[in-house]
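TASK: fixed-backbone design
INPUT:
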């Protein structure tokens, strides 16, 4: 079923439940190359279907391609190093070394997000320079050209601790709420929720990937039915996808298990050495004090005997 058929059917319904959502792949964008007008390509592919309240999920690879974030595959290791802020975990295996790192965007990902899939042979792609800015640029352009207030989510595939497989998540966003704070809202039983903050931008990214896929050449999906998440007129004040990054002080799993163990071992060794030094110093002080006291007492007794003999 085409975009035209799906969205026409959705729009023609007179009673649409508030929870109904339709996600449709956008066809006709084609291969994106460095310097291409990505917002223009998206607008031409789906502009006549777009309406205010829609959300576009855009694969980060086409953003990176348009922005010229391509490097030769021979420079992959240098690219990973360039993008890395800190290493979270590193594992050797038969195929080489896998490094989970925090990149300059604050995103924790394998190889800093540097990827060789869905790009020309002999090249790798880096993540967009500033995915939130890229999302804002697409929002502004489509508002200017088509007069619509929409949300844009820039998506990328990430692994997850504790779970197998990968899923798409939001690495850039504009024009929509990325975190829906439900704390204090009554649940279905009337009890106020105390901890629930839904990462709705990540949920949109993951759902959109079900129709975009990895091999079909469909880098954009149109999401309709989540109008309440679109922030009309507040795009420049939106925190973007950066709001999804957990602050370091709240991160309970900031290091890989083997790395955390090694950190603890080194810290314990150092602390134990310092404690031993301090204990030795204290013991030496006490021994020296006792020896000095005994020597002084012996000298006093000697003098007393010398005086008495006169």
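OUTPUT:
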């Amino acid at each position: 079923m085409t975009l035209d058929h799906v969205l026409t059917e959705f729009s023609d319904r007179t009673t649409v439940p508030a929870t109904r959502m339709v996600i449709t792949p956008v066809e006709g964008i084609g291969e994106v190359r460095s310097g291409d007008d990505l917002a223009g390509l998206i607008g031409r592919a789906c502009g006549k279907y777009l309406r205010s309240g829609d959300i576009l999920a855009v694969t980060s690879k086409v953003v990176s391609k348009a922005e010229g974030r391509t490097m030769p595959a021979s420079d992959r290791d240098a690219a990973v190093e360039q993008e890395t802020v800190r290493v979270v975990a590193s594992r050797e295996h038969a195929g080489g070394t896998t490094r989970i790192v925090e990149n300059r965007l604050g995103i924790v990902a394998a190889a800093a997000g540097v990827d060789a899939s869905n790009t020309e042979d002999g090249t790798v792609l880096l993540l967009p320079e500033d995915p939130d800015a890229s999302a804002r640029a697409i929002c502004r352009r489509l508002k200017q050209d088509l007069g619509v207030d929409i949300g844009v989510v820039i998506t990328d595939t990430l692994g997850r601790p504790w779970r197998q497989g990968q899923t798409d998540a939001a690495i850039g966003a504009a024009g929509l709420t990325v975190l829906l704070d439900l704390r204090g809202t009554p649940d279905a039983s009337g009890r106020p929720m105390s901890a629930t903050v839904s990462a709705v931008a990540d949920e949109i990214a993951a759902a959109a990937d079900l129709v975009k896929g990895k091999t079909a050449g469909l880098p954009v999906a149109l999401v309709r039915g989540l109008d309440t998440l679109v922030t009309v007129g507040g795009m420049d004040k939106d925190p973007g996808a950066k709001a999804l990054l957990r602050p370091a002080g709240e991160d309970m799993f900031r290091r890989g298990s083997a790395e955390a163990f090694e950190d603890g071992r080194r810290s314990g060794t150092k602390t134990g050495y310092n404690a031993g030094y301090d204990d030795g110093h204290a013991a030496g002080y006490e021994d020296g004090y006792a020896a000095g006291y005994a020597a002084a007492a012996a000298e006093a007794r000697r003098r007393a005997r010398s005086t008495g003999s006169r």
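COMMENT: Residues 13-17 have pLDDT under 50 and may be disordered.
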